[in-house]
């Protein structure tokens, strides 16, 4: 299977190239005007201004997390997480997702029967390119997997359950076994929404990374349908929880962090009864590149069938 690039990849291609053109244009105009200092300053603001937005998010999360049950982050940890996110964000949003989302195709080899597979589900304003480091490793290990693109980008999370269902079916047919389902950010909610409607025995294990299981403070400014669904204690989240058996959380491993700049309060990325794992000094997008979630996936793949 080779997932089409999708609308988000095209949008991020346009945005990335637009920023480069704007930076080059500003630099050239200011340089010709005899203002080399402003040439460098303007181009830097255009290309790296996102770092200031990230800094504002870290200020907010530090304040909101003061009353949270999760471990409190030190100033050094917040700075380290901010630095990591400044480096990770352009790799994901300006390279992997817009230009490399099809670099690693889904892997369902003919001899996959009897080998447990994986379904990878990205989060808000992302696509399957987020998982490129994971897909490269899974290809090398010959692990069957499908990585989806969930669209429409700003639609309802309810609509994404059908995309998850198609991916689960593909892995089930190739392997004959229930797959491990992995979701980053909103992708974890898409998995829960699928699970609420599907036979519970069709997933071997769930792994969520920075998923706003109880919503996020930052979503109060969301304008999209899926963004509003991720508001703190939203009606959509309450309805989802009412449809889930209490015992299901025991099959979840939830990675969360006190430096998550998108999902805060930090403990909102946990579930009661789940195996909740704290990732210190790492921000939201960068969480997907940490070794701990991938190592947990490998452990789940090696576990005997239930």
Task: Give an account of the 3D structure.
With 306 residues, the chain is α/β, with parallel strands linked by helices. The protein has a single domain, classed as 3-Layer(aba) Sandwich (Rossmann fold). It is 47% helix and 8% strand. A six-stranded parallel sheet has the order 2-1-3-4-5-6, sandwiched between helices. Strand 3 (180-184), helix 7 (186-197) and strand 4 form a beta-alpha-beta unit.
Separation of the first and last Cα atoms: 28 Å
Strand-residue proportion: 5-15%
> CATH topology, what is it called?
Rossmann fold
Computed over alpha carbons, the radius of gyration is 20 Å
CATH architect. name: 3-Layer(aba) Sandwich
Count of domain modules? 1
In DSSP terms, counting alpha (H) and pi (I) runs of 4 or more, how many helices? Answer: 10
Look at the helices and sheets and give the structural class. alpha/beta
Q: Can you write the helix and strand succession as a string?
A: HHHHEHEHEHEHHEEH
Note the main attributes of this structure.
alpha/beta, 10 helices, globular, six-stranded parallel beta sheet, Rossmann fold
Summarize the structure.
Helix content is 47%, strand content 8%.
Describe the secondary structure blueprint for this structure:
Layout: H1 6-32, H2 36-48, H3 50-64, H4 75-99, E1 118-121, H5 132-141, E2 145-147, H6 160-175, E3 180-184, H7 186-197, E4 205-209, H8 225-229, H9 235-242, E5 252-256, E6 275-278, H10 291-302
Parallel strand pairs: 1-2, 1-3, 3-4, 4-5, 5-6
Helix pairs in contact: 1-2, 1-4, 3-4, 6-7
């Amino acid at each position: 299977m080779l997932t089409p690039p999708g609308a988000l990849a095209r949008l991020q291609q346009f945005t990335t190239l637009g920023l480069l053109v704007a930076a080059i244009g500003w630099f050239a105009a200011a340089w010709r005007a005899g203002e080399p200092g402003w040439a460098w300053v303007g181009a830097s603001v255009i290309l790296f201004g996102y770092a200031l937005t990230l800094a504002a998010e870290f200020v907010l999360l530090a304040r909101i997390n003061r009353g949270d049950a999760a471990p409190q982050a030190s100033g050094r940890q917040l700075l380290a997480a901010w630095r990591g996110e400044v480096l990770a964000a352009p790799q994901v949003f300006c390279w992997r997702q817009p230009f490399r989302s099809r670099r690693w195709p889904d892997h369902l080899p003919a001899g996959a029967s009897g080998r447990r597979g994986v379904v990878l589900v990205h989060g808000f304003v992302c696509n399957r390119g987020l998982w490129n480091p994971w897909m490269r490793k899974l290809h090398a290990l010959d692990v069957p997997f499908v990585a989806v693109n969930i669209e429409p980008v700003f639609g309802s999370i309810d609509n994404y359950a059908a995309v998850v269902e198609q991916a689960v079916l593909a892995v089930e047919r190739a392997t004959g076994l229930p797959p491990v389902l992995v979701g980053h950010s909103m992708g974890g909610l898409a998995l829960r929404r699928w699970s609420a409607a599907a036979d519970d025995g069709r997933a071997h294990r769930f792994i969520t990374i920075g998923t706003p299981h109880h919503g996020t403070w930052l979503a109060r400014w969301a304008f999209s349908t899926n963004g509003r669904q991720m508001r703190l204690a939203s009606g959509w989240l309450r309805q989802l929880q009412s449809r889930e058996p209490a015992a299901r959380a025991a099959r979840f491993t939830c990675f969360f962090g006190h430096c998550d700049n998108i999902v805060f309060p930090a403990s909102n990325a946990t579930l009661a009864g789940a195996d909740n794992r704290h990732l210190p000094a790492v921000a939201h997008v960068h969480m997907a590149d940490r070794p701990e979630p991938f190592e947990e996936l490998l452990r789940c793949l090696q576990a005997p069938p239930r």
